[in-house]
Structure prediction request, 367 residues.
Amino acid sequence: MTTAAHKPRILTGDTPTHTGLHLGHYVGSLENRLRLQDQYDCYFLIANVHAFTTLADKPADVRANTIGIVKDWLAVGLDPDRSTFVLQSEIPAIAELTFLFAMLIPFNKVMRNPTLKTEIETKGLGESYPFGFPMYAVGQCADILAFRPDLVPVGEDQQAHIEMCRDVALKFNQMYCGVGNRVEPQDHQKAGGLFPIPQAKVGRVARLVGLDGVNKMSKSLNNAIFLYDDAKTVQKKLNRITTGRQSPTEPGNPDNILMQYVDAFIGAADPARAAEIRRRYAAGDNIGDGHVKAELGEAVNRLLDPMRARRAELDGPRGDDIALSVIRAGIHKANAVAEETLYRAKQAMKLDFGARALASQGYQSRD
Ligand code: ATP
Ligand code: MG
Prediction:
């Protein structure tokens, strides 16, 4: 039988900047998490410390959002009996690793990170963002590497961060574990490296565009359909999309937002119908935007119905307690793995003076 210890690992997660998750999360990452939950030893992290990069003055919101996201995970079907839910603020090894990893990444490289640049622009952070904002990119390397995962299911916007994480792992293994410069990434652990060089796994839709038709769908940009939006809200949000097309007989842009959504939400269950809509739309073959939006509404609502029902139950009287108990249940197991990583990282860096020996905390080495 394959035990968790022998399965390859996944680490991925979400930042609690909103009370729930949206369709972009679903097609970009959640679908993969659901699909891979049995094959991998999965760690799903809520980056609640990183939520303070933009919500430092709203701690109650960050807490409520954290509970909301756990409810959405449960509603979607992530299973805390099979996977470990990890609350970032309860894992001290992540903070320590962040500082150690910060020595391995050139400052200018962090500031040139395209994901950070886009976020600064689209979230209107201007010049006044805190030092912790760019720091979160380094912190994310620690979130990931603390769990020494093989795979990180993410949307396209996170690829620059995963690249940075891979660089940190490569450099750490070379600098402190004696791995040669020519060793291929996949052979690093065989060559004595502490860290696997994790790979990004981008979802079925790498970047779901938001309702504004320009930016990626995002919790923070007011352009999202949330998984818990009711059926009417979903349809209303879809109806507000503008494409500039005037009539059902005008040839439509086959790459516009509506056609992207047709691929994402009709194409998944019925590729032939999606292709038909696409063909008629591009040809101006008597198919109006209103009709497409109505069909999309049905498809999205079919997808969301079961999730919404489960989320509604969790928004009932015992829901917060359930979410909190799931969060608490993950803490020990997550710390066992992260503490072991930190211990071994400190050993490799000649920082092992024994103050936090693993055995004293009841954690066992995985190897
Ligand atoms: P925020 O606006 O606060 O940054 P977000 O909507 O970008 O929130 P995150 O918590 O930053 O959500 O991202 C969680 C995961 O979902 C990441 O793996 C990210 O790549 C993925 N993701 C987020 N938005 C999309 C999208 N529109 N399309 C595909 N994947 C997405
Ligand atoms: Mg984001």
In short: The chain has 13 helices and five strands. Residues 56 and 131 are 12 Å apart (CA to CA). The chain has two domains: 4-207+317-364, 231-314. The beta strands are 9-14, 41-46, 84-87, 151-154, 199-202.
